[in-house]
Design a protein that fits this description.
Blueprint lengths: L1 E5 L3 H13 L4 E6 L11 H5 L14 H8 L2 E4 L1 E7 L4 E6 L5 E5 L2 E4 L3 E3 L12 E3 L3 H14 L3 E5 L3 H12 L3 E6 L10 H13 L3 E4 L3 E7 L2 E6 L5 E3 L1 E4 L3 E3 L2 H5 L23 E3 L6 E2 L6 E2 L4 H15 L13 E5 L2 E7 L2 H6 L4 E6 L15 E7 L5 E8 L3 H13 L24 H14 L4 E2 L14 E4 L3 H6 L1 E2 L3 E2 L18 E4 L4 H12 L4 E4 L2 H11 L11 E2 L2
Parallel strand pairs: 1-2, 1-7, 2-3, 7-18, 9-16, 10-11, 10-16, 11-12, 26-31, 27-29, 27-30, 30-31
Antiparallel strand pairs: 4-5, 5-6, 8-17, 13-14, 14-15, 19-20, 21-22, 22-25, 23-24, 24-25, 28-32
Helix pairs in contact: 1-8, 6-14
């Protein structure tokens, strides 16, 4: 069996090695347009920043090591320019010499990945405007940074690569400005959770120009001007385009393969395309979202590697299936870790799913053990079925551990209430006896059993401030004096029982505290004394971060932020 693989990074390289493990006699030719195979896209910003010291550490395999270990014929700096499914051939051009030849195949695997989205704007060809997708891109940026020693940089885009590059450039002493049309960074996060990322970026000197549209670039001596639609141009020493990637599917389209959303390659669960004996994997293909069941593009290394393995199984006569991706991801940003899995609120609304959510601020490990840090944690679940839909966590240590537990729970199709039953490891340096994941389950259990009701940060400005409801802040007097929600009366939780006769039983009570714990306790107390009560999810600190970030925290709002 002769297998030709187009593309030699995550999906292609994974498939190649798997095929040889299943069929020692298979002839495999892997054709890669760049000069490198089996490299770590996610590590590229860290090489630019010097965290990864040696260029060789970026590549897991080389053409030589592929041949020595697997006898796989890897051809770099060669490009497949056409596919002829009827004759089962591909046309190949050698980039260095221009030589064109034809290669036959029994099975063809397409793993072309995605290419950086480069808008049709003036000035994008400037030598000071960069994209980052391949090792060659990385080396170009690395050489520029070392030779030119830029002091300023503009990054167009606030996704994973853009933010990782921002961090690395800042650590090198470069002043960074991020410009993008969306009004938040990191699309997998909800706006409220992204606020913590914004705060961290600004804390490290990164200027955020969100909601701005780039219209072009213009070189001006040793600088480049980033032209904006409604603002003055930004002058910098370099620009990085990181506004996203586009599936590289022109070969599939020209060969008559069925395409999916946004021009991606349509495949079934076996990673087969619409043409017999042609498979496709990785960033170029559409997948089924595990949570919504809808078609999606999820451009991550984990799914690409799994798809490569599945395609290899089926090429070798097996019957493996890719059951979908839920987009689990994690990102380091200075002292912060941001992670998500499943869907966010925007995606749930688009899919027409009736959902609810809990927000909590658990400690990374036992609070009495030194070094504990709180994390912002948000869990979504479907109201009717109680199935888990997604989770987002932003914080320090322990974020990756909890997001992986929740990702596993979603994959296992656990109900939200089953989070309470997870038997997770505990020792003071690592967790608490009731792990944050357990705590999320307890909170959902209380909501669904009717033990507590909640309202959210975006409900605050609509609270009745005309005296028809009681607005109650149960933090300490000192906390209240440092800042509070306008219209909220302060009765500390520990004193609440002694002041019950001051509260009107025929009025609903809306309770607020710092992070949502004391307000929950207050509501349980008040409910048992016959009051109708709801508490602020995430508390005052969550409201404060989100509203300040969105510049909506104005005392002019009826129940907005009042700063003392």
């Amino acid at each position: 069996m002769k297998v030709v693989i187009v593309g030699g990074v995550a999906g292609g390289a994974s498939a190649a090695a798997r095929i040889l493990r299943l069929d020692e006699y298979a002839q495999i030719i892997m054709i890669e347009r760049s000069g490198y195979v089996s490299y770590a896209n996610c590590g590229l910003p860290y090489y630019v920043g010097g965290v990864i010291k040696e260029q060789e550490e970026l590549t897991l395999q080389t053409p030589e090591s592929f041949w020595d270990r697997f006898r796989i014929d890897v051809r770099v700096r060669q490009e497949v320019t056409a596919i002829n499914p009827a004759e089962k051939t591909v046309t190949v051009r050698t980039l260095d010499s221009g030589k064109i030849y034809t290669e036959t195949y029994d099975k063809l695997l397409l793993a072309p990945g995605a290419k950086p989205t480069v808008p049709a704007l003036s000035g994008v060809s400037s030598e000071r405007v960069f994209t980052l997708r391949t090792v060659e891109d990385t080396l170009r940026i690395k050489h520029f940074v070392e030779d030119q020693k830029p002091k300023t940089a503009v990054l167009a885009g606030g996704g994973f690569i853009g933010l990782e590059m921002a961090e690395n450039l800042v650590e090198m002493g470069v002043s960074v400005t991020i410009v993008q049309r969306p009004k938040q960074l990191l699309a997998p996060l909800d706006t409220d959770m992204a606020s913590f990322v914004h705060v961290e970026m600004r804390r490290h000197g990164v200027a955020l120009r969100l909601g701005e549209t780039v219209t072009g670039f213009r070189q001006d001596g040793d600088s480049v001007l980033t032209l904006l639609e409604e603002s003055e141009p930004l002058r910098s020493d370099m620009v990085l385009l990181a506004i996203g990637v586009t599936p590289d599917t022109h070969l599939a389209k020209e060969a008559g393969l069925e395409l999916g959303i946004r021009g991606s390659i349509a495949v079934n669960e076996r990673m087969e395309t619409s043409v017999p004996d042609i498979y496709a994997v990785g960033d170029a293909v559409e997948v089924t979202h595990f949570v919504t069941g809808q078609k999606a593009l999820i451009l991550l290394a984990g799914p690409a590697n799994k798809q490569g393995r599945i395609a290899a199984d089926n090429i070798c006569g097996g019957n493996s299936h890719f059951t979908g991706s839920q987009g689990s991801s994690v990102l380091k940003l200075f002292g912060l870790t941001a992670a998500s899995t499943g869907i966010n609120e925007k995606a749930a609304q688009a899919a027409g799913i009736a959902y609810d959510k809990v927000v909590l601020f658990p400690a990374s490990h036992a609070a009495y053990y030194p070094g504990a840090r709180s994390m912002a944690m948000k869990v979504l679940y479907e109201k009717e079925s109680l199935r888990l839909l997604g989770a987002q966590i932003v914080g320090g240590e322990g974020v990756d551990k909890r997001i992986d537990v929740l990702a596993t729970a979603i994959r296992a199709k656990m109900k939200a209430l089953e989070l309470t039953e997870l038997d997770l490891s505990y020792a003071p340096p690592y967790s608490s006896a009731k792990d944050p994941v357990n705590m999320a389950g307890f909170m959902i259990e209380d909501l669904e059993s009717g033990k507590v009701r909640q309202f959210h940060w975006n409900d605050v400005e609509d609270l009745p401030c005309d005296g028809s409801a009681t607005l109650l802040d149960v933090r300490t007097e000192g906390e209240y004096r440092r800042g509070h929600l306008n219209g909220f009366r302060n009765i500390p939780l520990d004193d609440l029982r002694e002041h019950l006769d001051e509260l009107e039983r025929d009025k609903p009570i809306y309770v607020n505290c710092q992070t949502g714990l004391r307000s929950y306790l207050a509501c349980r107390l008040l409910t048992q004394y016959g009051f109708s009560c709801a508490h602020l999810s995430g508390g005052y600190s969550f409201y404060q971060v989100v509203t300040q970030e969105q510049q909506t925290a104005r005392s002019a709002y009826p129940c907005g932020m009042e700063k003392l």
